[in-house]
Write a structure and sequence with these properties.
By secondary structure, the chain is mainly alpha-helical. The chain has one domain. It is built from eight helices and no strands. The chain has helices at about 20-25, 30-35, 45-50, 60-75, 90, 95-110, 115-130, 135-145. Helix 6 packs parallel to helix 8 (about 135-145) and helix 7 crosses helix 8.
Length: about 160
């Protein structure tokens, strides 16, 4: 993310300095970022991939997974985004690897309490999509990856 829009683009060169990139990212306040669950970069897709007939998961299969995840959420009484702060620990239990992964992410990235809770909710959704009752380390790790703007590697 930068003024020219080419930072991290494999096909075009970014001409912004590290200071310019930091200044650009600094325009987004921390409290605002805390309220955004997913921070991801979406690179341009090469033409050959756009035209390829090979597909990943079909829309019908993904729809089925989403409906099953939503049913699990409704069974718990809350959609994951609406879990009240006082119920997060009950609804988002972590296995030992999940605890270690989340603790390391919070320490290394200096995450706020709000970001911690958002990661738990996203990890809960990832686990639901995978049909898992307990949030595992891999679910937490994936959720942390979606918090790219919390990382300090932009310079």
């Amino acid at each position: 993310m930068c003024r020219c829009g080419y930072h991290g683009d494999p096909t075009r060169e970014c001409r912004c300095t590290g200071a310019q990139i930091q200044q650009y990212l600094g325009k987004i306040s921390g409290p605002l970022l805390d309220r955004i669950d997913l921070h991801i970069e979406v690179p341009a897709v090469p033409y050959q991939e756009l035209r390829a007939r090979e597909g990943g998961v079909s829309s019908a299969e993904m729809r089925g997974r989403v409906l099953a995840a939503r049913a699990a959420q409704h069974g718990r009484g809350y959609v994951n985004a609406g879990i009240p702060p006082g119920r997060i620990r009950d609804i988002c239990p972590l296995d030992a690897a999940g605890e270690r992964t989340l603790e390391m992410a919070v320490r290394r990235m200096g995450l706020s309490a709000r970001a911690h809770d958002r990661i738990l909710k996203v990890a809960r959704t990832i686990a639901d999509l995978g049909g898992s009752g307990e949030i595992q380390g891999k679910h937490v790790a994936e959720a942390v990856q979606y918090r790219s703007l919390d990382r300090n590697y932009w310079t």
